[in-house]
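USER: Fancy drafting a protein?

ASSISTANT:
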Amino acid sequence: MTDRPWEMAPDLAVEVVSPSHRASEMQEKALDYLDAGAALVWVVDPSQRSVTVYRSPGDIRILREGELLEGGEVLPDLRISLGELFE
C-alpha cells in the first residue's frame, strides 16, 4: 500500500458542501478535479438548494430549484429536477 493519491481522475466528481466549507475552498477543489482530467464536477449545496456544474474552468453554471441537473456526455440519460433532488 502506498500513500500516493490515486492517479486517475473520475469522469464525474460530486462534492457536497458542509457548513464548515468555504465557497472558495469548494471552487478550488472543483477546479482541481478538472485539472486532473475529470469531465464533469457537481458541487451540491443543500443549504442553498443549488448545484454548481463545472464542465471546464470557463464553463461553470449554478442550477437552482426548478432547473434540471443533467449528466451531459458522462451520463447522457441522467436528468434530475433539483426540486426532486432536495426533497
